[in-house]
Amino acid sequence: MGDNNQNDVIREEKKGLSLAMQIFISLALAIIAGLLMQGIPDIAENYIRPFGTIFLNLVKFIVCPIVTFSIMAGIVSMKDIKKVGKIGGITLVYYFFTTAVAITLGLLVAVAFKGGFPVLSTSSLSFEEPEAIAPMEVLVDLFPSNFIIPVSEENMIQVIVAAILIGFSVVLLGERASKAVEGINLINDIFMKCMEMILKLSPIGVFCLLTPVVAANGAIVVGSLAKVLLAAYVGYILHAVIVYSITISTLAKMSPLKFFKGMLPATMFAFSSASSVGTLPINMECTEKLGASKEISGFVLPLGATINMDGTAIYQGVCAIFIASCYGINLDLSQMITIVLTATLASVGTAGVPGAGMVMLAMVLTSVGLPIDGIALVAGVDRIFDMGRTTLNITGDASCTIIVSNLVNGRKPKKAAG
Ligand code: ASP
Prior knowledge:
mainly alpha
């Protein structure tokens, strides 16, 4: 892969503030502006958010080709089908294991908080039910039935499956496909360059996306839903501090502090954009700076941004318990186990875009017979849940990348980010 064409958007220390610092400043400014605009949230929504939407649209535009070509470039650069199999195997085991731990943790934290959950009147709820999705449907939906539709509908999981199939075919063709390998690498570099330009706008995007959220939700945060939000954030933080610290230090032999510090630009971006897929390029940059090899980050991260959602799993566990207790329902152990299974599947089927996890919550609630209307209880503050869960989602993807890179290649240490 053309190293000279690396997207080095967050390495511009020489020219004034780094992108990470700019994002941080705009995050702080957005909170201040949002609080000041609490009385006039419509203005923030109508005049500030559209600029954030433009930025997010550009990110969405570029993400499909980035995922497709980075996965293909990752596979073809490995040349060896066994190596791809090994990396894929470790990645999937890690992703499923950490997600199952996450949802269990989410349930435990929620049970601990249960006594303090507000008793809400559920009679006046109105919420348009999202269609519940059956677990087997999630499995079937992983596979594309058409060459174009996955791209046009931005069905990332199907795009990934297609990219893996094509990538494998190129590897199997060997020497005959050497021109295709060059082509894939070149196209990958072109899209990376394009992404680099778009990402330079991220401080503006972050400000314009976050200000309306704070303007609209600032009062609610301190209101009755604060406890369920707190429960979710405790779960997110415990998972990061306990699970990732252990896996990073034992499996990647890296200090967790160094890991979290190096991940700061990506976590701040994820927090404000609430999109794992949108955070992908910055995440690649951070993990590569932390020493992950490019071929591995190009394969493990896009896969993770699509199927690995530890934060979403915690959120679903916390919300299931919260909704059950608001309706006066007590969940038994077998129902909890069902939640662990369905939430793990649900997080695989959750797209890495804002709000996707809330839709998949419907599947989890249905699996244990909880009323789907309960989603209305948490829908109003979903964005606040989402910012935290996305941050955890991408941190999990990054931890896997560093670990796989260490297990397969041995890390090539580079200068840490920031
Ligand atoms: N927004 C989350 C993500 O991009 C998905 C979710 O809604 O849970 O990772």
